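User:
Note these tokens:
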Amino acid sequence: MENTLGLEIIEVVEQAAIASSRWMGKGEKNTADQVAVEAMRERMNKIYMRGRIVIGEGERDDAPMLYIGEEVGICTREDAKSYCNPDELVEIDIAVDPCEGTNLVAYGQNGSMAVLAISEKGGLFAAPDFYMKKLAAPSQAKGKVDINKSATENLKILSECLNRSVEELVVVVMDRPRHKDLIAEIRQAGARVRLISDGDVSAAISCGFAGTNIHALMGIGAAPEGVISAAAMRCLGGHFQGQLIYDPEIVKTGLIGESKESNLARLKEMGINDPDKVYNAEELANGENVLFAACGITPGTLMEGVRFFHGGARTQSLVISSQSKTARFVDTIHMFDNPQTISLS
């Protein structure tokens, strides 16, 4: 799968990032998201595959493109049979977030990126559009920290695994009212807190790389993004756990269904009989082959944002593969108008 689709999915996230970055700083988060969705879908539908969106922009009625269940790839074209035999194309499940951190793009802030994860059919957990309690940590702490333990306990374990004092640890937490007690506990334990307004996928995968000065992600964020994070951490060998949150009272902000009871009923309809189950990365991304790709829209911890120059743009992407056990950073020059001089700045 990596050999046949690796370069293709890099181009998918690059096109989404370029489209969205044109709206950086213009205060139009919905437009920044919309153009990313359109660009991602357009490039996806040129790939020789039979893709199915398992995590996307929402249900069909709310999202006209990249909605959950939508089929994508060359097979969706009316004239597909003139290009290939659709029945022979590889079937894959796809999780996408064309503009992760729409507010970050709209207000010109760091950390937004276009992301996706793919696996063979059935290889990605079809998470409902709920929230998820998350814990991400470096590979040294895999299986040792635990989402059911307190932040204080996990910080002590993490400090031992990384051979650092608790005071040297940095924990990323979403800046939300629901995290008031969590933030206070982390600080009381002696660790440092980096608050973010959006974009916890970047924070999660940063835990998998040494030198980012991010040692853990804790707290509650969106469930679909949790699956995408899990796919990346599965490839990196890092620690990731997620537990679905279905009670609106716990979330405190944002929409999460009509009631706790209706959310539980929806989970049952989706075949999730244990709503309190804690999932690890290998369960959320359980395919034999998993591929993650991201492209920076605005500058971030791992990647530069899109940089335009006369006649083109420069992007930086990241592709992580469970198959080849590699994490590749890809620096690309896009020539729109065939410029005579390529800018490297």
User: Anything to note?
Assistant: The chain has a mean pLDDT of 91. Residues 2-21 form the longest helix (20 residues).
